[in-house]
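User: what does the whole thing look like in 3D?
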Amino acid sequence: MSNNTRTVPGINVQSTADIAFLLLCYFLMTSTMDQQSGLQRRLPPMPQQGQEQQDTKVNRRNIIIVKINSQDRLFAGDQLMVVSQLKDKIKEFLTNPNNDPNLPEMEPTDIPGFGTHRVSKGIISLQNDRGTSYQAYIAVQNELLKAVNELRDEFSMAHFGRKFAFLSEERQEIVKKAIPQQISEAEPKDVAKK
Amino acid sequence: MASFKRSGKRDMPELGVSSDIVFMFLFFFMVTTQLRSTEVKVRVRLPEATEIAKLERKDLASYIYIGSPTLQYQNQYGTDARIQLNDSFKTIDDIRNFIAAERDAMSEADRQLMTVSIKADENVRMGIITDVKQELRRCSALKIMYAARKTGGQ
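Assistant: Here's the predicted 3D structure for the full assembly of 348 residues, as structure tokens:
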């Protein structure tokens, strides 16, 4: 034991900056910052094995068939069109503004918390070929979503004075019920090779 | 008059502050980024879309990469579109095990929220995507996301 008062040796802090830099570089190299984003969809559940595939009878007028063939040509309701026309076609299909007997029925439904609203019974059936390019498929999916989103925005603006994204959750539920997103991705058909 | 005294020896002031800033940067990156878990062995250029939504829970997402192998794997696997799960090339039949494994790694409550993100190249054909979709339906992994990037401008 020495009598000298001992001072605690100063810790050299200079190197911590270097160490932190090193760690920083390591994390910069090994990590990604890209946003994970995309089109969210729900697949229909697979029909159970013994369960009869019940074809719910859907009135012909309530279905629009959107078909993309192997040459990426787009047909909507037996009509050849380009992708940019699809949105308006779908919007017209889903709203049926003039009560056209060839467009889907509008059924007045009671929505809790809102009242009755004419809810469209329209279903969009999306069919594609095995040879369709993914790009074209996504473009069409995007256009269908855009049509629904725009209708929801319009409904929200008219009844709540705000866009759909800025509504509270309960109101979003109401809008979702008023304008359902009924896109069915058809069962793949066995396309015979010719 | 008071005069400023000069102390005999002047040291450079210690530079202790800079390390705090660097540490701050470090924590920022640690929080905002996620570790790159897999090496992507297929060329994936995501298709463009405008109506995209952000993936809410990144930790609950599983990724399926579909595209043609990158150059270094081409002489081994050819140029046809292939499926990559985790770190290796797989076939449609492996999806079932992959989904099961991903499910097991999650807590009970989170399994419902699992999202399968399909990261496919814009040039692949729908045939392979349809197969993947059917297999996912069979595994009842129904929440899917077609990964896409935002189109620049309207």
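In plain terms: Chain B touches chain A through 55 residues (CB under 8 Å). Chain B has a mean pLDDT of 81.
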